[in-house]
Specification:
By secondary structure, this protein is α/β, with parallel strands linked by helices. Helix content is 43%, strand content 15%. It has helices at residues 18-25, 39-55, 70-83, 96-106, 127-132, 139-152, 165-172, 199-205, 214-217, 222-233, and strands at residues 9-12, 34-37, 60-66, 87-91, 115-119, 157-159, 177-180, 209-212. Strands 1-2-3-4-5-6-7-8 form an eight-stranded parallel beta barrel, surrounded by seven helices. The chain binds the ligand O=c1ccn([C@@H]2O[C@H](COP(=O)(O)O)[C@@H](O)[C@H]2O)c(=O)[nH]1. It comes from Pseudoalteromonas byunsanensis.
Length: 234
């Protein structure tokens, strides 16, 4: 994967119906986008569903946001690597040692190891919600703090909002991957997302990968919507 990876859109497959998800996926080509499987579909349909997507030729981001003791997380990311996923993630707030052990566990996969990234501050959170957790930093300060910790632990990048992308690129360098949910094409509903940005502005700010769910999957014509988004960031 090069620094200027042109396949930037990761579609969040958040469906409660496997057939509906597969009907959509089968209209896509692995050259157009990557796919993200999160807690909903994994809980319903498990590793077999992930394997099906991998076998269809898609790069899959397994977004289970592991947050546990180092030994457990190291074993969980190993299980993800065995599924053949392209990217997997942990919560940075699980701590430095946990992130280090997870990265070490993937070393044996060499060039086939999935990218390992850390969630910083969920894009659904704003300053008020951080305060309620007892965190007095701004979301941006907390994201930078956790991203530096993740980089020091040897991770490949972080999940953050595109609003922090420019600052993170300037502080952590171009190679450290920024995966940004909370992407909303102009005029689309923010829903529960708080720190949002349009696809075009996110790419300009330095996002490497744009995680997009409902604006595509709930569009009247999801395939055409993906095409329009891809065209807007080409
Ligand atoms: O900080 C985060 C981390 C993960 N997500 C996930 O991304 C998608 C976003 O879906 P939309 O429908 O485009 O809002 C979803 O699967 C989340 O679990 C996130 O939103 N923010």
């Amino acid at each position: 994967m090069s620094q200027t990876d042109s396949k930037k859109v990761l579609i969040a497959l958040d469906y409660d119906d496997k057939q509906a998800a597969l009907t959509f996926v089968k209209q896509l080509s692995p050259s157009q986008c990557r796919l993200k499987v999160g807690k909903e579909m994994f809980t319903y349909y498990g590793p077999e569903f992930v394997k099906e997507l991998v076998e269809l030729g898609f790069d899959v981001f397994l977004d289970l946001k592991f947050h546990d003791i180092p030994n457990t997380v190291a074993k969980a990311v190993t299980a993800a690597a065995e599924l053949g996923v392209w990217m997997v993630n942990v919560h940075a707030s699980g701590g430095f040692e946990m992130m280090q052990k997870a990265k070490e566990a993937l070393e044996k996969y060499g060039d086939n190891a999935p990218l390992l990234i850390a969630v910083t501050v969920l894009t659904s959170m704003d300053q008020g919600q951080l305060l309620r957790l007892g965190i007095e930093k701004t979301p941006q300060e907390q994201v930078v703090y956790l991203a530096k910790l993740a980089k020091e632990a040897g991770l490949d990048g972080v999940v953050c909002s595109a609003q922090e992308a420019q600052l993170l690129k300037s502080q952590l360098g171009g190679e450290f991957k920024l995966v940004t949910p909370g992407i909303r094409p102009a005029g689309s509903d923010a829903g529960d997302q708080k720190r949002i940005m349009t696809p075009q502005k996110a790419v300009q700010a330095g996002s490497d990968y744009l995680v997009i769910g409902r604006p595509i999957t709930q569009a009247q014509d999801p395939v055409q919507t993906l095409k329009e988004i891809n065209d807007s960031i080409a």
